[in-house]
Every structure is written in C-alpha cells, then in structure tokens.
Amino acid sequence: MIKKYYYINKKNIYFLRFLLEAYDGIANFETIDANKGLILLYIARGALDEFDMLINELKKDIAVYELL
Q1: Are 59 and 31 in contact (CB under 8 A)?
Q2: What pTM was estimated for this model as a whole?
C-alpha cells in the first residue's frame, strides 16, 4: 500500500469517500482531521495509475491538495 496525505474541503470528505468506495479496491480512506480536511489514503500498488487518473479528474471539480 502507498500512503498519500491530502487536504480537501471538509464539505467534500464524504463525497470523496463515496467515490472511492465505488471504485472497489482502489484505495482505503482515513480522515485524520475533519475540521481541517486532512485525509490519508492507502492506495493499492496495482491501482496507482487508475487512482492518479481519478484524482486528477476530481481536481477539475473540487480542490484537492496532496501533501508532499
């Protein structure tokens, strides 16, 4: 599993969780700080390309910032 931290508007946390659940097995979701919108995603190694495509498309509609 690959771990990536993101900031997302706290109003969109549930939307992202719902979206990732629809893509069964692509990533597991953990909310670190709901008030700040800090989340941790555990991405399956074999699904990294698919995840990157999904997150890049999502960035067109909502603000999603990866912590490096």
Answers
A1: no
A2: 0.85
